[in-house]
């Protein structure tokens, strides 16, 4: 009976957590809907008197609004991509691994399995990266998301504002969402500012629209400052071909840690996210090259171009702690917590 109550309580808590995880998204949706009403109706249709100015404002506003909401939708509802089946331990290997009590034998088992896979990154201690929750050998740049309870290919971070894990499948959409958000806020702020001044000087009557126009400028400026910083940071990450996790914890290769292990040069780094076809760069359509399981590496180009070689190895990195990047294990094999 007591066990049944515990299971019911656990299920109830999980349900509450799922519901609460949508609260940040709901907040954003409410703010966006209000901004639409305030700009279209209270500013353009009520406050702006010139018909030509109304048309111009509305055309450009709706063009930006469409891409802004489209990219936000794609960021929320594009599911994170998981590793394919060949990276999971087979039933036999899983049984052998779990029944084996000797750490060195477990380590060797994972090394033997990893030899058959395109895996070139390791833990901080040089062991094979293994997730003991999903029972898989992690592909390069793959990490376990505790919020999503799964391993995500090229995981960047879990974003509560989209209630989704940002990774290989939706990082392009997330970056576009940030860019169009910045443009959306900037456009509102610049077009509202002149009417803000008129209300401030008393050149326009103090009606209901005054509150919406004044508050619209304040909200647009507030979001613009925070978003432009976040967007700038992710642009820097793209220019270096890094994820947020890799920026905080240097990826470790078979030869050792390399800060620029995936850095292919500015143009190729951008193409790794947006693809080769530039006409798709601004449109939220999947165009990232590859399948998310393996990526071109700087070290593989060094023999072809010696100028790419760099010597960022073990000496200048802190790897006394084997936690990389999500968990630790006394087995010298990366596990998830």
From TrEMBL:
Q: Show the segment(s) annotated as Disordered.
A: 312-337
What EC designation does it have? 2.3.1.225
Q: What InterPro entries does the entry give? A: Palmitoyltrfase_DHHC, PFA4/ZDH16/20/ERF2-like
Query: Which EC class is the enzyme in?
Result: transferase
Compositionally biased intervals (Polar residues): 327-337
Classify the protein's membrane topology as the record does: Multi-pass membrane protein
Q: List the Pfam families.
A: DHHC
Q: What is known of its domains?
A: The DHHC domain is required for palmitoyltransferase activity.
| Family membership | Belongs to the DHHC palmitoyltransferase family.
This chain belongs to which protein, by name? Palmitoyltransferase
What's the source species for this entry? Pipistrellus nathusii (Nathusius' pipistrelle)
């Amino acid at each position: 009976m007591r066990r049944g109550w515990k299971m019911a309580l656990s299920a109830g808590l999980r349900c509450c957590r799922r519901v609460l995880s949508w609260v940040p998204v709901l907040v954003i949706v409410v703010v966006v809907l209000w901004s639409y009403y305030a700009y279209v109706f209270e500013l353009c249709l009520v406050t702006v008197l010139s018909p030509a100015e109304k048309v111009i404002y509305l055309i450009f506003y709706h063009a930006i609004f469409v891409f802004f909401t489209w990219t936000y939708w794609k960021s929320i509802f594009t599911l994170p991509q998981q590793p394919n089946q060949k990276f999971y331990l087979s039933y036999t290997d899983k049984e052998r691994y779990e029944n084996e009590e000797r750490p060195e034998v477990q380590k060797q088992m994972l090394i033997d399995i990893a030899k058959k896979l395109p895996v070139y990154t390791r833990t901080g201690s040089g062991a094979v990266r293994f997730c003991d929750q999903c029972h898989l050998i992690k592909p390069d740049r793959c990490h376990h998301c505790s919020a999503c309870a799964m391993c995500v290919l090229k995981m960047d971070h879990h974003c509560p504002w989209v209630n989704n894990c940002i990774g290989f499948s939706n990082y392009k959409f997330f970056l576009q969402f940030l860019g169009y958000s910045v443009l959306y806020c900037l456009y509102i702020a610049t077009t509202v500012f002149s009417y803000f001044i008129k209300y401030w000087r008393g050149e326009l009557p103090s009606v209901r629209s005054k509150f919406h126009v004044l508050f619209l400028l304040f909200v647009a400026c507030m979001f613009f400052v925070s978003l432009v910083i976040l967007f700038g940071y992710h642009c820097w990450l793209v220019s270096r071909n890094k994820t947020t996790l890799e920026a905080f914890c240097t990826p470790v290769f078979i030869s050792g840690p390399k800060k620029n292990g995936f850095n292919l040069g500015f143009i190729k780094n951008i193409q790794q996210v947006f693809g080769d076809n530039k006409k798709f760069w601004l449109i939220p359509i999947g165009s990232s090259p590859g399948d998310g399981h393996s990526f071109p590496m700087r070290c593989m180009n060094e023999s072809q171009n010696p100028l790419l070689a760099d010597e960022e190895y073990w000496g200048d990195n802190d790897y006394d702690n084997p936690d990389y990047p999500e968990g630790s294990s006394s087995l010298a094999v990366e596990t998830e917590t």
